[in-house]
Amino acid sequence: MTVEWKPRLSVLADELTAKGKLKTARWQAAFRSTPRHVFVPVYFEQNDTGGWERVTVDHPAALDTVYSNTALFTDVDEHGAGVSSSSMPGLMTRMLELLDVRPGQRVLEIGTGTGYNTALLCSALGDRHVFSIDVDYVAAARERLVALGYRPTLATGDGIGGMPGHAPFDRIIATVAVPHIPAAWVDQLADGGVILADVKPNTTAGNLVVLRKRGDIAEGRFDSGQAWFMSMRHPGQSPDPVPADRHPGPATHSTTRLSAQAWKEQPVPWFLACLDVGRDVQIGYQLGDDHQPTTLTLSAPDGSWAEVDMDGSTDGQEVRQAGPTRLWDAVEGALAEWESAGQPKWDQLGLTVMPDKQWVWLDDPTNVVRRMAG
Ligand SMILES: C[S@@+](CC[C@H](N)C(=O)[O-])C[C@H]1O[C@@H](n2cnc3c(N)ncnc32)[C@H](O)[C@@H]1O
């Protein structure tokens, strides 16, 4: 079967150009010549009951989906969680533009996944300048890259340690979220080099940050747009902390005017709150009979918990919380702090990474708003 991908790719490229997500000649050329379906021959789609259906890209509707600005899950685990995906093409091109990479520079990508973004890098920079690591999927990515004539340096392993045997790199781009910037990445970056990564102290809180290295410090601002990458996993480690017994209470009741969807609607104060309560706080939803979320739940390793109903009245949503860590109070506190600081946007916040500490700042690196673990 002849795959009619070129007209579809051209329409998608025009759409991303119009949205300002694809700008420079280098990335225009790379994007417009790289077939995504080669890297996403199969993807998973969620049905109405939350189950996953495997879709093979061998018919026009599936091809339309692959050539749309959509993230596609390419692997799901036995619990139904997505463990690899091909990110939204517009997010990839936005990140590649932000990376500000020049010909001749060496790039390390963390999170090879399908190999699609690796192919874009190879197309723009030449494969000998491209290095990529993933905990899995590398064999399939290599085959697809070879089919297009690319032989970048690929490795299977935990990207938290970078690829020390091939350092230094001029650019490090992570397409997987990290709770803080790993020290190895700064070590393996050349002076003047750039790290672009999604920093998320927990799965729902954080954003892309662009850091430039000077001496042994990497520093820069968060990006104005919002990105959501899946969290890094580490072979041999359980992804989530073992939940403690739920604190028996009694629970206190209050109301909140902050949406239970605050992680989406108020991402900056939510990020600050999550830095306060710690990365091991788990966030979930209770679902109603129609599989739609009805209550947000937070739970901490010390057994503390909070629940926020999602069907609030004009007075706000009901909150119940118990245990030594007042989880929702931390969220309310961060909201009040953010409001009194004039509701700063993402790009007013920055991150400084030193060998022994990292901190989040507002407007200027000396104005520390949170210390990061790490
Ligand atoms: C959003 S996908 C990457 C998308 C990819 N760049 C593409 O173009 O298809 C995230 C990837 O990060 C990988 N990952 C998770 N933990 C990792 C780790 N510790 N080191 C390296 N990669 C990791 C996952 O296996 C997954 O393939």
Task: Draw up the topology in text.
Blueprint: H1 6-18, H2 25-33, E1 42-46, E2 52-56, H3 60-66, E3 72-76, E4 82-86, H4 89-99, E5 107-110, H5 116-125, E6 130-134, H6 138-147, E7 153-156, E8 169-178, H7 183-187, E9 189-202, E10 205-214, E11 217-221, E12 252-256, H8 262-265, H9 267-277, E13 282-287, E14 293-299, E15 305-309, E16 317-322, H10 327-340, E17 349-354, E18 357-362, E19 368-372
Parallel strand pairs: 5-6, 5-8, 6-7, 8-9
Antiparallel strand pairs: 1-2, 3-4, 9-10, 10-11, 11-17, 12-16, 13-14, 14-15, 15-16, 17-18, 18-19
Helix pairs in contact: 1-2, 2-5, 9-10
Bound molecules: S-adenosylmethionine.
Residues 84-87, 110-111, 113-114, 116-117, 133-137, 158-160, 175-176, 229-230, 232-234 line the site of S-adenosylmethionine (SAM).
